[in-house]
Design a protein that fits this description.
Layout lengths: L2 H62 L12 E7 L4 E4 L10 E5 L2 E6 L8 E8 L1 H74 L4 H24 L10 E3 H18 L3 E6 L3 E3 L2 H17 L6 E7 L2 E5 L7 H4 L19 H11 L3 E7 L3 E7 L2
Parallel strand pairs: 7-9
Antiparallel strand pairs: 1-2, 1-5, 3-4, 4-5, 6-8, 9-10, 10-12, 11-12
Length: 381
Amino acid sequence: MNELEKRSFYSFVGLYIVSSFIFITVIGYWYYSAQKHALENEHYYRLEHLADHISGEIIVAHMQGHTHAKFKVPKDITLALVDTDGKVVEGRLLNAVPHQAGYFNRQGYTVLVSDAPREHLNIKYVILQSNSLSKAVAALQKRVMVVIFVSALIIAMIAWLLSHLFMRPVRQRVRQIERFINDITHELNTPISSLSMSTEQAFKKGVCSEKMLKNIAISTRQLYDIYRSLTYLNFSAKEEAAEVIALDEVLQKSVTYYRPLAEVKQINIKIETEPTQFPMPSSKATLLFGNLIGNAIKYSPKGATVEISLKERMLRIQDQGIGIAPEKQQRIFQRFERGTEYSGGFGVGLSIVKSICDHYHMRISLNSEVGKGTEFILYFP
């Protein structure tokens, strides 16, 4: 990955992990608070029930005129009975003698002080003390932290996987754009170099020969073709209004435009047309025909023939070039896709052709065989 891809990748991973971690932390805190509250209520009502039971036995014993029996409490609870003088008469206190009834938290222990005995048998308070709540809360904290940690690891792995899946099309597009830039740089280099050499020779000789003028004309045409393609790719360009044009005349002009390039490669162009009208901007028709004719010339060997016909509202362009492999024919109309590395190109010509055809509801078909040539057929509605 290049630096831009790395920044995008790690930004996505970081944003996903941080936002997800905040989310599961909030959920974890909410769960912890709810469970802690439930534990506190359960513990309080447990102590309160036990204190009421003990107080009831004290009252009953007092009414019957004898002392209460030995009280049994769960192992996790410590009992203390305090008389009206503030002395512990049974059990033991873990902290100082309380001065009022209530429910307290002291040094990790929950303490329930109940005055329910009402001083029967001279017992003022039933005191129950336990640290089981703090242990349960600590265990709850540990479980929640473990769940959050495990969830964070899972989220990190999911984020890493999703980031790779997310970056795959971006990475492919970046590779296509990088290749597009390299290809167009290469494409521009050829006509610019030819123009530079022709003008340099003209200056040296003090005269411009017919060959130099032809080289300049061809190079200028190549540059203009690249310019038109790049202009079409500019999505902010204004849409031209369609008008009924004579397609046969535009086609003849396009062939005339490309004849010098064909002559350099000793390629013969045969053309047959009949009057055909269609509503579309002339510039779009020129770009449409130009890409197809230019490709036919570019990918045809020296001495080949390119056959062009416009009849019965069908345009056929047949070359004797290298052809397109079957597995690439389905993708050849996608932007930045190239059927071959032969003879340069930057992978936008046929995507422009397909885009124009789709916009004006034309159907396009392709027949090609490797080593024998390619035929494009356009059907005008």
